[in-house]
Amino acid sequence: MTSDDLLARHRAVLPSWMPLYYDEPIELVSGSGRRVTDAQGRSYLDFFGGVLTNMIGYDIPEIREAVQRQLATGIVHSSTLYLIRQQVELAEKIARISGIPDARVFFTNSGTEANEAALLVATNYRRSHQILAVRNSYHGRSYAAMGITGNRSWSASALNPLQVAWLHSGERLRGLLSRLGPDDQVDAAVEDLREVLATQTAGEVACLIAEPIQGVGGFVHPPDGLFAAWKKVLDESGILFVSDEVQTGWGRTGEHFWGYQAHGVTPDLLTFAKGIGNGFALAGVVGRADVLESVPAISFSTFGGNPISTAAGNAVLDYLLDHDLQANAARVGAILADGLRSAVGGLDCVAEVRGKGLMLGVEFVRPGTTEPDPAMTVRVFEACKAGGLLAGKGGLYGNVLRMGPPLTLTEEEAREGLAILVDAIRSSAEVPA
């Protein structure tokens, strides 16, 4: 507890549905590199990065200096009714690396807003409010974004302005498709899509939106190639494909810069957020010009792409590319994934170690079953904190330990974090080290 009882003050003025991590919540007061320090002076290696947001880490000189230069101009905000050089420069870079031809970019403040913008564009372009979404997905906390979120714990309202039809996810432990091999799973998912279109939709359908790796869903991902197989069916009717890259973008998966690239397909729209701002509020949607230009009235985001956030965004993207952090994510991510599979993958409480690059999850189950064990997850989660490591939680049943460290994580730090993780899992499972 902090000296002024910050927890009690938090509970007195903030809603109870805003969760706090840990039995004894902590206040982070400083950070450097991949480490943060709490109000009690305890240091932690951060493997969650503000929910995959502090992508470059903490107190990075290049980013701090870029923001300070903009602050020194006296212009913190001007609104997008005026030209913003930093915004234009960042849009040019993102359009170029998006992989989408003749791309346009619209900036927002968060991933939720980015997905709302994608839905606005897709429904206008197709003149339809029918959306295809994926079970176990998460796309945000706003009205429409909740409507396409396939996870009851995160769906705070049953009301929905959209007509949504649901596809099977890439879940490999449970569900109808889990018993199939990767190739058969893709074929079955395509059959599922065709059946959903034939039975649950009428007339035009606006789009299919999907995460290449489901973030809140516990880092579940389908076999590579599924999106391309889906898109062949979508193209028969002109249905748009939206790739939600809020968590998978910017090289985090290691093998590709964007998650969609694992599937050999190019989306019509791509949403981004989190890491590109490295803590500054920055997000957006990038898509084909003819699609993004389909909004029939004036629309703009007051703070989206403001001078401060885009100054940070330019510095983040330049740093990311200059230091080839995608390759680093692949390299240090392999240390973590291989190490976890070798050390704890055989435990009967570990159902799966999964993910790509620096987007990794460990799913815990009751020994010898596929029954989720959220209590075990909490034990591991708290043990990691006690060992000096911050991680995340997630999954449909709250039984997945999630890790999304900054992409600047070093090999030495990866091995340090791995040791803490292995000890936390073994001790929580009451297995001798």
What can you see in these coordinates?
The chain is an alpha/beta fold and 433 residues long. It is 37% helix and 16% strand. Strand 11 and strand 12 form a beta hairpin. Helix 3 (61-72) packs antiparallel against helix 10 (307-322) and helix 7 runs parallel beside helix 8 (226-237).
Comma- or semicolon-separated keywords:
alanine--glyoxylate transaminase, alpha/beta, seven-stranded mixed β-sheet, 433 residues, single chain, globular, Aminotrans_3
N-to-C order of helices and strands: HEEEHHHEHEHEHEHEEEHHHEEHEEEH
The rounded Rg comes to 21 Å
| Number of extended strands | 15
Shape: globular
Which structural class matches the secondary elements?
A: alpha/beta
- Span between N and C termini? 32 Å
What's the tally of helices?
13
Give the fraction of residues assigned to helices: 25-40%
| Unreliably modeled segments | none
Widest sheet, order of strands: 4-10-9-8-7-5-6
The fraction of residues assigned to DSSP E strands is 15-25%
What kind of sheet is the major sheet?
7 strands, mixed
Average residue pLDDT: 96
